[in-house]
Design brief:
- The chain is of the alpha/beta class and 493 residues long.
- It is 44% helix and 18% strand.
- It contains 18 helices and 18 strands.
- Strands 1-10-17-16-15-11-12-13-18 form a nine-stranded mixed β-sheet, sandwiched between helices. The chain has a seven-stranded mixed β-sheet with strand order 2-9-7-6-3-4-5, sandwiched between helices. The protein has a two-stranded parallel ribbon with strand order 8-14.
- Strand 3 (157-162), helix 9 and strand 4 form a beta-alpha-beta unit.
- It is globular and about 80 Å long.
Length: 493
């Protein structure tokens, strides 16, 4: 902002010096352009709370503010990667085929949330499947041994897509298995976000994996030249084994996530494993982003496993979030869970930076008698983000929402569970980046027995939490003013 303000002064000085008496007209035209852009943002915004940042920047610093918006915020500047991701996402839509009999069964089993099934399957485009195996792990520590056990069974291919990979006990244990599988003819592909792993892996790491026979993609490599695509990171966590078994959840592939390394106290995370036909959606999600870079799979069907497993109780739908379309899938699924809740809705989130829509939905649900609970970290990983998270407490608590901070450490899980029948487990935080800017994924569960395990996990974890009060959530005058300013820029955090 300081640089932008100085740039504003420099541009105005240069215009007046160079154009003399005509400078006023030129400056007026530039300011009029800024005003037109502000009106355009206000008229077309899908989430005005986050776009308010751009409006204020442009109004305060019209010339550089407009330039920065056009460069980063307006999505006017494209790139080869950007175009490839859009094209591959459109091309992959044909692989998400809904079995209409399954959808009808699900809707008839729960007519009161029929709209959620329709939204996920028909509008967002992610099919529902009969449950053929779901296992929820309360900690990364519990999920990690099972991940290794399933990796040892791989016979055809292994796909990994993670935001963070860090050399250590967790990743090295997985890497040893991957190298062994390569020797036995298993195809292994690894994709990690370049910015997410910026501090954990050397720039040459992808080449190191390639030398070991592991195909590797650094998603959205860091570019010193600012452009719009650099703001969109791959925050997904996907592991697919032979198209038969899939893992997701909150954990990345680093020691912190299995409590081998403790930086922020006890790390409360989770992991979920699915089996059977639903794994296909995770496979397609991985291949979509992979082929935006490598263009090596003309037909995804060769990775489609058609093994028939016995059906269990309930239905599930793995889903993805992409910033490259107009659909806000992750937020809409969360909103529907809140709006359809009758008895309770329990939420894990490491960050709480939300717009008025989500805030008002939680408060309205609480006022109609729904037990709305939020669990957030008691030990921050980023102090300024933690302060912003806490700045939302007072309004929510006043509206009837219960907020608990996990005193032993950091909550990294991203989970919604409601009414013993519905849950969403995945990678989407309750912040602007996850909801609007990043590539994310989740698994929506309905009437699956494991939902009871998720609810029990939440209630057991709450015993280690401190319930926040309105008084504790009130800042002093100076901090309130500071956080109010910082919250304007929360969409970029």
């Amino acid at each position: 902002m300081i640089i932008a303000a100085l740039l504003e002064l420099l541009i105005i000085y240069s215009v007046f010096k160079f154009f003399g008496s005509s400078a006023g007209w030129i400056e007026g035209v530039l300011r009029l352009l800024s005003l037109v852009i502000v009106f355009h943002i206000a008229r077309t915004s899908q989430h005005l709370s986050s776009d308010l940042m751009w409006i204020l920047i442009i109004m305060a610093l019209p010339i550089p503010g407009t330039a920065v918006y056009l460069l980063i915020g307006a999505n006017l500047i494209s790139s080869k990667t950007f175009r490839n991701l859009i094209d591959e996402t459109k091309a992959a839509a044909k692989y998400y085929v809904q079995d209409e009999a399954v959808l009808k069964e699900a809707q008839e089993s729960a007519p009161e949330i029929k709209g959620q099934f329709s939204y996920i399957s028909q509008k967002a485009g992610f099919p529902f499947y009969r449950n053929q195996g779901v296992q929820y792990f309360r900690l990364g520590d519990e999920g990690y041994p099972v991940m290794k056990e399933e990796l040892q069974k791989a016979e055809k291919f292994i796909f990994l897509e993670y935001f963070i990979i860090e050399e250590g006990v967790m990743w090295n244990g997985i890497l040893d298995i991957l190298k062994e599988k390569i020797r036995h003819g298993v195809e292994v592909r690894v994709m990690y976000d370049d910015m997410g792993s910026f501090n954990t892996l050397p720039a040459s790491y992808a080449k190191q994996l390639e030398k070991a026979g592991i195909k590797c993609v650094r998603f959205n490599q860091i570019n010193p030249i600012i452009n719009v695509i650099m703001n969109h990171r791959d925050h997904r966590k996907i592991l697919v084994i032979d198209g038969k078994v899939g893992f997701s959840g909150g954990i990345n592939l680093a020691d912190e996530y299995i409590n081998v390394k403790k930086i922020h106290g006890e790390w409360k995370d989770n992991c979920i494993m699915i089996k059977g036909s639903a794994v296909w959606s995770l496979t397609v999600m991985f291949l979509t982003n992979w082929n935006a870079y490598r263009h090596e799979d003309a037909d995804f069907e060769k990775f489609h496993d058609h093994t028939v497993l016995p059906d269990e109780q309930g239905y599930l739908a793995p889903y993805g979030e992409t910033p490259l379309d107009s659909e806000i899938t992750g937020q809409d699924i969360y909103m529907n869970i809140i709006n359809q809740a009758k008895d309770y809705c329990y939420i894990y989130t490491p960050y709480l930076i939300i717009d008025n829509e989500l805030s008002n939905a939680m408060i309205l649900a609480a006022r109609r008698g729904v037990d709305i609970r939020l669990m957030t970290p008691g030990v921050p990983d980023k102090k300024i983000v933690w302060d912003i998270t806490r700045s939302f407490y007072k309004q929510l608590i006043h509206g009837g929402v219960k907020i608990f901070e996990y005193t032993p450490g950091f909550v990294h899980a991203k989970v919604f569970v409601s009414d013993d029948r519905t849950a969403a487990v995945g990678t989407l935080n309750l912040d602007y980046r996850s909801l609007y800017l990043h590539f994310e994924n989740g698994i929506y569960l309905y009437n699956v027995k494991e939902i009871k395990e998720i609810q029990d996990d939440y209630l057991k974890t709450i015993e280690k939490c401190h319930q926040m009060t309105e008084k504790e959530s009130t800042f002093g005058v100076f901090k309130t003013a500071m956080i109010s300013i910082v919250r304007i820029f929360a969409p970029m955090m």
